[in-house]
Amino acid sequence: MSRFFSHKFDALTPYVPGEQPGDKQQLVKLNTNENPFPPSPKALLYAREHTRSPELYSDPEGVELRRALGFLCGVRPEEIVLANGSDEVLNFAFMAFCDADHPAVFPDVTYGFYPVFCQLSGIPYREIPLKADFSIDPEDYCRARGTVFIANPNAPTGMLLPVEAIEGILASDPDRVVVVDEAYIDFGGVSCIPLIKKYPNLLVTRTFSKSRSMAGARLGFAVGCEALIGDLNTLRYSTNPYNVNSLTLALGLGTVLEESYTQRNCAEIIRVRELTAERLKALGFRLTDSKANFLFARSDRISGGELYRKLKERGVLVRHFDKPRIDDYNRITIGTEDQMDALVEAIKAILEERT
Length: 355
Hints:
This protein has 355 residues and is of the alpha/beta class. It has helices at residues 41-49, 63-73, 86-97, 113-121, 138-143, 163-172, 226-239, 246-256, 259-282, 304-313, 337-353; strands spanning 28-29, 80-83, 104-107, 125-128, 147-151, 178-181, 202-207, 220-224, 285-287, 294-299, 316-317, 319-320, 329-333. The chain has two domains: 21-37 and 260-353, Aspartate Aminotransferase, domain 1, CATH 3.90.1150.10; 41-257, Type I PLP-dependent aspartate aminotransferase-like (Major domain) (Aspartate Aminotransferase, domain 2), CATH 3.40.640. A seven-stranded mixed sheet has the order 2-8-7-6-5-3-4, with helices on both faces. The radius of gyration is 20 Å and the shape is globular. It starts with 27 loop residues before the first strand and ends with a helix.
């Protein structure tokens, strides 16, 4: 850190992304919740044939993509804002709806970017402990003062709150915003997006990185009443109105227009997730009830940190969080069935070495 770096960031602890090693061909990469399947054929076709000339700015409104997303989600285009990944739109939400009078409220074990957004913008925040089984108690958020952020399914636990529980939180205080981060909703959950018609204090964020195989393209969006979306657009136009590039807009449009491809891939990932969960349980692992494209697992036979390191030595990458409450767990992305076979065989070999 240079001597010129502002002291206002002295307490900032940046988010640490999962490892992205250069030679990925030699690895079974199960650490960053990427989709193991390529983007849809129509997405790639649109990227080739519908990308605006790069000497021209991209469409700042993303008109075609918002229209297609609106049809898919059952909302009006005016109820959607596009972003450079869901991280950007989440950052806008923290900036727009949190301040000294409206602190951010979220679980103590959740997406690691939430406290970073708060520290970056000088927002006070409170972390509510998950229950012993890592589940969220909705009553905690019905009573909480401030802007609520809930990842649903949660990360890294993968556990899901039913829509009825989210609606209870929304109804408990109509004078505060509730942000539901649905990055993983396509892997076994039911979206809260229809509730925006009933609750003007609801904002739902989504990403194309997980279910739609576009992690590298960086595309996210938020859905809410037109007034909330207007708030986010005020910040977007005050920072980077051309925040989604032309290639990504074309990829996104092609993807939305081939929704059946996404749903087939999600069904396969769910199938492989459940199969892998049963195989890990047979090896003595304990797992949360994940409804995401990853598993959250621990073993009494080996610590989470040691398993992570030994898997890495064998060319298998998973995600380990060296934090209280979860340091014995590893988050394991669901890849192809062959990749999960390689994971399980590596774990078997590691456990056999310890006997």
